[in-house]
């Protein structure tokens, strides 16, 4: 039984599961080139079907999610969604800023109703019928149930606490659930107005950054603070954790006004620290309470807040958990897959998936690659090489930057060795060059490493289990902090991909680097120019290479060099 999962909101996409396998999953931004696309995922659906050689009529069960009033309004009037997308990404002039935000916060806190359920289903039926689907059954999944299913069923845990924390969906900002004996049971709910995700989103906006996109910058900036003492942090009084839920006396709009006042009179790095600290304290208390109340020490979590790896590190080290799993596509972009997993659980009782990698997206043939290269001969030269991993490793070991394009595209926000830009983990010069000229990012944003599992414990502290998906923060060992100049934050922390055997070609490259440098570690950042989605096609790769002024690209078995550098 094939089950198609869909999401048509922020970072929309599609996924198909069958049995206990994820067969295909992708997000619409990779096709439209609009980062965090908010439209109906037409291209994603078409690709999933084409890749699996399926017709629309082969799909009988389709999972959709989220039918609150705000989401239903944007389905009925897509112009609302489009206009707010442009406003949020600062692509239009700032008109009625406060009015727009106040309206958004108030409407997104409204719950779903029988009418919004019906209207959302009618919307999906119309869209799917236009794509050729017939005689299908729509399954409407609640927003946080989809997040919870993704975390629970991808974790491989038989028994686990499953916690979701994000902005808002179906009038909730989080849940605490229990996976036990093949059943997923909700234990508690966190109301929309007590949203740690919206709180962090609001702070991101007030710091002059793009909400739903630049929250990682706030996290990174917080490490440059002088560490504001608790008694001088009024934000700590906003939330209160009680048992398995979070409460607040403020509405979302009142909280925004409070944040605005504090931000106005606080240096930006100190404000970022105050916000990060508030998030960490409340999330940690919630996890501690859940573990104490249930006695369960294996914990899986998802939702946008789970993208904050410094918070994740605190949860891993201080909550009392023993085993952990963060769903790799933790934000709303993972809802399509979570919805499909939940419907598969309802219909077929599937509660565990083989989830050793997330290479669920498109791949391309040698013919596709050669065609793209030939179309760009005016500014590049290329040759086919016998050992592309060795060629790339030689350049990386000489402090050169290499764009790396191979195999199926990763699902989610992290580049994991198939759509990556690679460099030396030891060179501050490489880091600065990437930030300033190629990636064009803020100076305080750190890059991340890919490290062989067998070397992770040599370089990083407290490695009790391997994180293959770059979802967790770790502190570098003191002796490694001076060595790993390009892949650590200012406080000595890192967000590593720990590589096992799930990507043989990428592992081979890093093994070559290890033979030359002593450790199996490289700088790995996503293959894109800052503000653009990660590249999908060979043409995308070449466009990014040209736009970024990069010198080297390894694509398939072809070594590519720019004539312009």
Distance between the termini: 52 Å
Q: Which value, in Å, is the CA radius of gyration?
A: 23 Å
The CATH homologous superfamily of the largest domain is named: Carbamoyltransferase, C-terminal domain
CATH topology term of the largest domain? DHBP synthase
Question: How many strands, which pairing sense, and closed or not: the largest β-sheet?
Answer: 8 strands, mixed
**Beta-strand percentage?**
15-25%
How does this model look, in words?
It is a single chain. With 565 residues, the protein is of the alpha/beta class. It has 3 domains: 2-145, Nucleotidyltransferase, domain 5, CATH 3.30.420; 156-326, ATPase, nucleotide binding domain (Nucleotidyltransferase, domain 5, 2-Layer Sandwich); 366-562, DHBP synthase (Alpha-Beta Complex). Helices cover 39% and strands 20% of the residues. The chain has 20 helices and 22 strands. Strands 13-22-21-14-15-20-16-19 form an 8-stranded mixed sheet, with helices on both faces. Strands 3-2-1-4-5 form a 5-stranded mixed sheet, with helices on both faces. A hairpin with a 2-residue loop joins strand 21 and strand 22 (558-562). Helix 3 crosses helix 4 (78-88). The chain is globular and about 60 Å long. The model has no long low-confidence stretch (mean pLDDT 96).
Précis, in short:
With 565 residues, the chain is α/β, with parallel strands linked by helices. Helix content is 39%, strand content 20%. The mean pLDDT is 96.
